[in-house]
Amino acid sequence: MLRALRGHPLTYLTLVAVAFFSAFPVYWSVIVASHDNAALAEVPPPLLPGGNFFANVQRVFDTAPFALALLNSFVVAGTITVSVMFFSTLAGFAFAKLRFRGRNVLLLMTVVTMMVPTQLGIIPLYMLMIKLEWTGTMYAVIVPALVNAFGVFFMTQYLSRALPTELLEAGRIDGCSTARLFWHVVLPAARPAAAVLGMLTFMTAWNDYFWPLVVLTPDNPTVQVALSQLASGYVRDFTLGLTGTAVATLPLVLIFVLLGKQIIGGIMQGAVKG
Amino acid sequence: MASPPGGSLRTVAPSPGGPPSTVHPPARTRAASGWRSRLHRLDRQASPYAYVAPFFLLFAAFGVFPLIYTAWVSLHDWNLLSSDNPFIGLDNYKALFADGYFWNAAFNTLSIGVLSAVPQLLLALVLAHLLNRPLRAQTLFRITLLLPNVTSVVAVVVIFSQLFGRDFGLINLVLDGLGFGRINWQAGVATSHVAIAVMIMWRWTGYNALIYLAAMQAVPKEIYEAATLDGASSLKQLWGITLPMIRPTVIFTVIVTTIGSMQIIAEPLLFGAQVSNGAAATGGTDRQFQTLALYLYEKGFRSFEFGYASAAAWMMFLLVVVVVAFNYLVVRRMRGGLDA
User: Fold this and answer.
1) Among A61, A263, B9, B229, which is most exposed with the fewest C-beta within 10 angstroms?
2) Which Pfam families match (chain A) (predicted)?
3) Alpha carbon A167 to its chain's center
4) Which residues of A touch B206 (CB under 8 A)?
5) Do residues A82 and B31 touch, judged by C-beta distance below 8 A?
6) Domain B99-333 has CATH 1.10.3720.10
7) What architecture (CATH level 2) is domain A54-272?
8) Touching check for B35 and chain A: CB below 8 Å?
């Protein structure tokens, strides 16, 4: 039995090939980022990292407001992450464990909103930001992202499975208000899923590009906006662009390497009922 | 759908089987307990709405309202720089229908969408099938597959623009070495579409594979064992057993991928910006890879014709609905070979 399931050499060959193509572009960016521009013209090109990385990083910080951009991105992604974790757990608790009129309709609406192409409303959204005088500030990037349908749905799924109803009923009998139940019973129980949601949210917020590009100014960018400026100058400086890429991607790759297993588990969990 | 009005009843009458002694907390003055129970009822009735409210309020303000207001703006000659925005009825739509650039963008969107989505989902399906068995280094494979999805879209395009570069690009170097000659990927319609489709595929194939894998793991293993005994090949099992069993997931990914494909913007925008800042919003010097979303961006945020761009947005919305409905029907009709 085991022999039949153990996997054909061809299976491994295919998977190794795909893994190679998945990883190579990232590896290549590190190679380019650690050489100078002249090395790119060599035939054959260098296939091992060089010693120029920190000099290039210095150049990146001299060319673009990268320090400010990194700070902005940390503030934006951090705030959004905490907020999404909190409000998604709150709404997820209500949908999973509380009975109220219209619950199913509202939950269905939540799922449907995941499929609404909200990007098409970008012009009035921009006009709204002008009205609120938020253009050019981080408010414009943070506030619309403070909670989203995916998070609510994700936490609903988790809590309806993992939070024992008896525990809540016991709390009720002891005279707990709903808010106290949330703080003392739901939040601790939600922690594993909320952590996964937090990682996914941080990644998405960190990588968000189009809306920040539209609503922010070049002198006060997030890291992705700064990176796109860096890479699209009139002078084609690939080393500069790819060094910026490495710097901008590094925080995420670190998170991913440390917590990749949990992130994958989270994506697969969220998908099962999708 | 029809839940009982307010869960409050349950406090007074505990769920059947519960201990009868807890019907009401005793030993309090009448007034206090009346006030308390009213507060308690209010808590149980209002709290759920308060808890889901943040999401719905936020979505209403920053999701639904802009989308609907887009329709209103699209009926006006609305420019960011002018103070007067006269109502012009359907003129923006008439102009849009006559605009060759709009249809060019529509064609590019569909072309890039098909080129990226179809191979992406097929490959994801095969990869998930390969991973859905006991393997060595299972976790390592999964992490590597998801690595592209962690990279930002900007990073992906910067990296691939270098790889697809005309003079120093690694891909052309290999092609040249194999004797095929160099390709100016940016310049042509077909070549630029392929390059952009590769970037999208690279970023999303692993992600979709994991979603398929999650669904596949819910399929009972006994079915495969029986099929193996019957001599069905691995590929036949994928087509005959797995696909029908995970059809809801397939439909889901097809819809999500379609909606995503119809809104592709960052890839062509950044790919164009690699050539010159002027070519960014137009999707190449000849608009050879300008997508609909990019066209919307050009009209809305380069020339600030809000009315006209809003009309384009609504047309896109209709197009999304049509294409999604079409794909949904196609996928729903697809059936595996061994379907009985």
Assistant:
1) B229
2) BPD_transp_1
3) 33
4) 22
5) no
6) yes
7) Orthogonal Bundle (1.10)
8) no
